[in-house]
Write a structure and sequence with these properties.
This protein is mainly α. It contains 3 helices and no strands. It starts with 10 loop residues before the first helix and ends in a 5-residue tail after the last helix.
Length: 77
Amino acid sequence: FPGQEDREPSAVEKAQETLSTTLENESAPAETIKEQLKALRAARLKAQQDLAVAQQDLRQILTVRQEAVLVLNGMLN
């Protein structure tokens, strides 16, 4: 995406990169992989929770029509 190179990677992206790099090492200890997998899952869960809060906040300021358009476009549930 244009402009993404100018932003700081998200916690999820950092955790994915760390795990990916570890998996490239065939001799990486299973415990390290487990810890990094746990960190990735935690980062994803936090991102989902943050998104749910942001979507709820957004709903508070939208008209019903605006909310319907965002639901149709997959931006809101």
